[in-house]
Design a protein that fits this description.
By secondary structure, this protein is an all-alpha fold. The protein is about 40% helix and about 0% strand. It is elongated and about 100 Å long. About 30% of the residues are buried.
Length: about 280
Amino acid sequence: MAFLALSSTSSASCTLSLQARATRQSSAKPSSKRSSAVVCAQQRRESSGAAAAAESQTLGASLANAARCFTVSAAAAAVLLTAQPACAELNAREAARGGEFNRGSAQQFGGYDLRNEDVVGVYGKDLRLSNFTGAEMRGANLMGANLTGAYLMKATAFAANFAGANLSDALMDRAVLNNANFTDAILTRVVLTMSDLTGSKIDGADFSDAMLDVKQQQALCKYAAGTNSVTGVSTRKSLNCGGARGALASSPSRYMTDESGVKPEAAFDASRFSAYQ
C-alpha cells in the first residue's frame, strides 16, 4: 500500500511538472511573437526613414541642377543681348559685300505676296540666285529679269510675265505657272518637274536640257514655235519635240555627258565665291 501511495505521489508530481512546463512554454510564445512584431515595426520605420532621406537628397540635387541651368541660361541670354551691336555690324558688312551668298543679286522673296507687283521696276533686273520659294506671284512682272539660279519652288506665278527673262539653272519644281508668259525666255537646265505650265506662252523660249514631266513636255510640243533671239535655238528643238529621246524628265545637262556640248558660262566671278576676299 505504501508503495502504491508513493507511486501515485510521484505520478502526480510529474504531471504537475509537465503542466507547469507547458504553461511556461505557452506563455513564452506570445512574448516571442510580440518581440518579432516590435523588431519588424522598427525595421519598417528605419526603411521609411532611409527612403525619405534618399528622396530628400534627390530633390535637393534636382533643385541644385535646375538652379545651375537657370544660371547658364541667364548668362547665355545676357551674352546674346550684349552681342546685338556686333550682329548689327556683321549684317551691315554682309550687306556691303553683296547680300546673301556673298552676291549682291541674291534677294529674299520666299513666301512674299508679290501679286501684280512690278518686281523688275522695284527691285531691278539682276535677281540671280534670289529666293522666291512659295511666293505668291500672280500677275507679277519679271520681264527681262536675270533669274539665273533663282529658287521658285512651289511659287504661284499664274499669268506672271517672264518674257525675255533668263531663268537658266533655276529651280521651278512644283510651281503654278498656268498662263505665264515665257516668250523668248531662256530656261536652259531649269527644273520644272511637277509644275503646271498649262496655257503658258512659250514662243521662242529655249528649254535646252530642262527637266520636264513627260506629259508636260508633250503638251508644250503641241503648240511650241519660234526661235530664241539670244541663243538661236528653236523652241521645238529645245523641247525635243518628236525626237527619239521623247522625255526630258531624267536627262542631265548635255555638257556633263557630251564633251562636244556647250558648257554654261560662269554667272559670277571666281573671287566672289569666297567670303574672305
